[in-house]
Design brief:
The complex is a heterodimer of chains A (114) and B (111). With 114 residues, chain A is an all-beta fold. Chain A contains no helices and eleven strands. Helix content of chain A is 0%, strand content 50%. In chain A, a hairpin with a 6-residue loop joins strand 7 and strand 8. Classes of the chains: A mainly beta (114), B mainly beta (111).
Chain lengths: 114, 111
């Protein structure tokens, strides 16, 4: 069964450093998303991406964040100058036809900022 | 402003009985509503969805009901099984591609 894969599974970084979280969406999907879940809190939408551009973003997704699809398979989330409060599980998801259809989520990357 | 709320943080039911999970929303612009199941340290897994133009969708043991006038949706699981024990999130999506999750309800199904 096709799946969304995320690497690394766990990333520890020092405050102020930049991190890149990587995702390989399902191959025939066209819409890509990043979410995060701070420990003990709800899953929060960050950004949606379609046709090589951002479709929607939340208030959380400020200039510190950026997304990119550098090639035909990868979808990345870059967090610049990380802060302690960026520590969370980051989930990548993809869909075939936008958010009217189910999103397939990856297993997540646990980001720990120290 | 919490646009999607799941007011019950936890629910415990006996195996074989019905589980009813509830979700309320405030934004009339949501176009689709979905339920996801989540285990610790895993990504959410899709269960069932409903378009805003419908009031019911059924898939096996799972049925989602949408009451647009009340801005309320619910997920019914019947019969409940111990393997259903997990955190359940409702999500409300716009056509533009934005998704809002509720806080989650932890369901425990007792054998």
């Amino acid at each position: 069964e096709p799946e969304v894969t995320q690497t690394p599974s766990h990333q520890v970084t020092q405050m102020g450093q930049e991190v890149i979280l990587r995702c390989v969406p399902i191959s025939n999907h066209l819409y890509f998303y990043w979410y995060r879940q701070i420990l003990g809190q709800k899953v929060e939408f960050l950004v949606s991406f379609y046709n090589n551009e951002i479709s929607e973003k939340s208030e959380i997704f400020d200039d510190q964040f950026s997304v990119e699809r550098p090639d035909g398979s990868n979808f990345t989330l870059k967090i610049r100058s990380t802060k302690l409060e960026d520590s969370a599980m980051y989930f990548c998801a993809s869909t075939q036809r936008g958010l009217s259809t189910e999103a397939f989520f990856g297993q997540g990357t646990r980001l720990t900022v120290v | 402003d919490q646009q999607v709320k799941q007011n019950s943080p936890s629910l415990s039911v006996q195996e074989g009985r019905i589980s009813i999970l509830n979700c309320d929303y405030t934004n009339s612009m949501f176009d689709y509503f979905l339920w996801y199941k989540k285990y610790p340290a895993e990504g959410p897994t899709f269960l069932i969805s409903i378009s805003s133009i419908k009031d019911k969708n059924e898939d096996g043991r799972f049925t989602v009901f949408l009451n647009k006038s009340a801005k309320h949706l619910s997920l019914h699981i019947v019969p409940s099984q111990p393997g259903d024990s997990a955190v359940y999130f409702c999500a409300a999506n716009t056509n533009a591609g934005k998704s809002t999750f509720g806080d989650g309800t932890t369901l425990t199904v007792k054998p």
